[in-house]
């Protein structure tokens, strides 16, 4: 129940700011700073306060405009992470492969991948090599298209990367 109250308080702060947000992700509006101070004084755990800070930064960055160079650099980073995950799958190294996923999804990914043989993992890795960035949403969400050809038919799958509260990009879904 306490978390619901904190969430509702955050919503109230967001709505009361009337759309005026700090543009620097390290700065907060006076209302936001006051809210965060109140949460600290109420004894909210540090992890939850950091999560609130993260939520506010995501909100601030939702309209980020990326330069071509920034997009190119980000694409190189995310493709590299994807390639590392694929190489781990190809080797049958499930633990390394799942380390590239969001923490909340690692156990279920590990469970699913553990049901596949090493040959099946390698085949999956080879199939998932063709990715292309199709969308950036703010500074914390990147969407890719994965193209797979099976028996002459092209299939398209969505791959999503999200930046976590530690500013690390992780695979959210595919």
Characterization of the model:
It is globular, with a radius of gyration of 20 Å. The chain has 2 domains: 2-63, no CATH class; 68-173, Nuclear Transport Factor 2, Chain: A (Roll), CATH 3.10.450. It is an alpha+beta fold and 174 residues long. Helix content is 53%, strand content 20%. The chain has a 4-stranded antiparallel beta sheet, with helices on one face. The longest helix is centred in the middle third of the chain and has 24 residues, at 68-91. It contains 7 helices and 4 strands; from the N terminus they run αααααααββββ. Helix 1 (2-16) runs antiparallel to helix 2 (30-41), helix 2 (30-41) packs antiparallel against helix 3 and helix 4 packs antiparallel against helix 7.
């Amino acid at each position: 129940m306490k978390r619901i109250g904190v969430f509702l308080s955050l919503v109230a702060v967001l709505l009361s700011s009337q759309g005026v947000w700090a543009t620097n992700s390290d700065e907060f509006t006076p209302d936001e700073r006051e809210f965060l101070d109140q949460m600290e004084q109420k004894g909210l755990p540090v992890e939850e306060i950091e999560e609130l800070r993260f939520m506010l930064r995501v909100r601030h960055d939702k309209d980020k405009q990326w330069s071509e160079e920034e997009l190119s650099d980000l694409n190189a980073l995310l493709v590299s992470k994807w390639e590392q995950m694929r190489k781990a799958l190809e080797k049958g190294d499930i633990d390394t492969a799942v380390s590239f996923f969001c923490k909340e999804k690692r156990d279920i990914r590990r469970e699913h991948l553990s049901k596949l043989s090493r040959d099946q993992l390698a085949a999956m890795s080879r199939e998932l090599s063709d990715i292309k960035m199709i969308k950036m949403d703010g500074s914390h969400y990147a969407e890719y298209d994965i193209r797979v050809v099976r028996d002459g038919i092209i299939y398209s799958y969505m791959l999503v990367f999200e930046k976590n509260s530690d500013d690390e990009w992780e695979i959210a879904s595919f």
